[in-house]
Amino acid sequence: MNDTKKLKNIPYRLDPNEHKRLKLFCVERGIPMQQLLDKAVQEYLKKWAV
């Protein structure tokens, strides 16, 4: 991600149990949740964007 650009926030609702699972997944792997979500969005767009 380019740090010179201003980042945008988006509201996203996540079930508390899913949030806990995601947080635990990240903690166990030493990955910040933001980094995991950034990568997930990039991979999704790479695969599915036109």
Can you describe this structure in just a few lines?
By secondary structure, the protein is mostly helical. It is built from 2 helices and no strands.
Shape descriptor reads globular
Our estimate of the beta-strand percent is under 5%
Series of H and E elements? HH
| Secondary-structure content class | mainly alpha
Q: What is the residue-mean pLDDT, rounded to a whole number?
A: 92
Distance between the termini: 20 Å
What's the total helix number?
2
Rg, alpha carbons: 13 Å
Q: What percent of residues adopt helix (DSSP H or I)?
A: 55-70%
Can you count the beta strands? 0
Largest sheet: none
Which regions are unreliable across 5 or more consecutive residues at pLDDT < 50?
none
Structural write-up:
With 50 residues, this protein is mainly alpha-helical. The protein contains two helices and no strands. The longest helix is centred in the C-terminal third of the chain and has 16 residues, at 33-48. It starts with 15 loop residues before the first helix and ends with a helix. The model has no long low-confidence stretch (mean pLDDT 92).
Main features:
50 residues; mainly alpha
Topology:
Layout lengths: L15 H14 L3 H16 L2
